[in-house]
Amino acid sequence: MATEIKVPSLGESIAEATVSKWLKRPGEPIALDEPVAELETDKVTLEVPAPAAGTLAEILAEEGDNVPVGAVLGTIAPTPTLPRIGGQGREGAGERERPAKREGEGQQAFERAGPAVRKLIEESGLDRATIAPTGPGGRITKADVLATRPPAPAPPPPVPAAGEREVRVRMSRLRRRIAERLKAAQNTAAMLTTFNEIDMSQAIALRERHRDAFEKKHGVRLGFMSIFLKAAIVALKELPAVNAEIDGDDIVYKNHYDIGVAVGTEQGLVVPVVRDADLLSFAEIEKAIAGYARKARDGKLTIEELSGGTFTISNGGIYGSLLSTPILNPPQSGILGMHKIERRPVAPGDKVEIRPMMYIALSYDHRIVDGREAVTFLVRIKECVEDPSHILFQM
User: Fold this and answer.
1) Residue 265, SS3?
2) 318-322 contacts: CB < 8 A, separation 24 or more?
3) Nearest-CA neighbor of 43 among 155, 171, 177?
4) In sequence order, what are the residues at sequence separation of 6 or more whose Cβ sits closer than 8 angstroms to the Cβ of residue 360?
5) CA 115 to chain centre
6) Following DSSP, what letter does each residue of 85-103 receive, concatenated?
7) What is the DSSP letter of 24?
8) The whole model's pTM is what?
């Protein structure tokens, strides 16, 4: 009897997706839980695992089709079981029947993996010894493989044919959603932006002094984002309106600090959320950000990882931006923009010196946040980054 492949639950408030790619074609064998198709929502791209092993019998929803939750994408036919030769379970006359070999027997613990994962390892061209297992009993999981393999190259942009002056490409769901949210932020919020600048000398010296030891101990690089994230938490605790949102006629003040970190991908900007960032160490924050960046490049972020942030930080400096006005991520009331570090002359006191300087920007919803609070917020960020002891003592 054929097994139906259905559209899974897509997360809160998402009722429809687009079939972006079939990973299997009719007639091809499928292992249990092996990805068979990719769906694109307005937030993430997710894989649909096979609900049974067998052979892909038919495709009922083609690539590009919009499908609701629960819709049937295709069917899987069971693989026929071939009878054994020789009768009574023997493979040849006079041959003693051998007991079934347990999976993983004769293997080292780190080599244990299911058939679908073994196939993924082979297709990825990876050495099993390089994959750190996280599954029970030392098993290698699909997530372990995806975390180890390099990101897939971005698809090339469409090339106009000879004589063509234009190429029309349908917007992805993610790009359409980005456009809707940004326009809604402009139409709904009373959005203003205020600016300041930071002397990055102390932050750079701090990172240079501890970079090697930090990476050796924690297995992750010490970047500026964790410093700015911690500085933002100091400022948010002092100025709770920047961590609040409007809900109808109410203002909801958040006593938790779930900080979104904007990540650019070939498909568009996504904002995964570092949960309870005030409770995390610098190393835990850097690991979370690195993991999200890797998952964003591979298109593996989940709905839960992109939902529920209270404040956002965006670093346009990695692309060379010197100054910008970031747009709010609704329903949040504030977003901090970081920018390129550039050496330029400044006058600390009566002497002109060349210092590594960064412009920072806070876009805020003036319905909640007053100008005094916005300016004070950036002053606190400036104080914490220019003298990181403010972060340590939360001053």
Assistant:
1) coil
2) 319/264, 322/359
3) 177
4) 195, 196, 197, 198, 336, 337, 338, 339, 378, 381, 382
5) 27
6) TTSTT-SSTTPPPPPPPPT
7) S
8) 0.65
Two structure tokens written together for 391: 């972060």
Q: Which domains does the chain have, with CATH numbers?
A: 3-77 (2.40.50.100), 110-148 (4.10.320.10), 174-393 (3.30.559.10)
Residues annotated as catalytic are: 366, 370
Dist CA 138 CA 283 (whole Å): 25
CB distance 117 to 140 below 8 Å: yes
Identity of the highest mean pLDDT range in 121-130, 157-166, 370-379: 370-379
Of 20, 16, 23, the C-alpha closest to 64 is: 20
- Token digits for 355? 């210092």
Report the 3 state secondary structure along 27-76.
Answer: CCEECCCCEEEEEECCCCEEEEECCCCEEEEEECCCCCCEEECCCEEEEE
| Closest C-alpha to 388, from 265, 234, 258, 172 | 234
Task: Give the amino acid at 322.
Answer: L
d(C-alpha 226, C-alpha 309), whole Å: 16
* Confidence band, pLDDT 50/70/90 cuts, at residue 89: very low
Structure tokens at 331: 């329903």
Whose tokens are 């409770």? That residue is 279
Q: Which two tokens stand for residue 5?
A: 């492949």
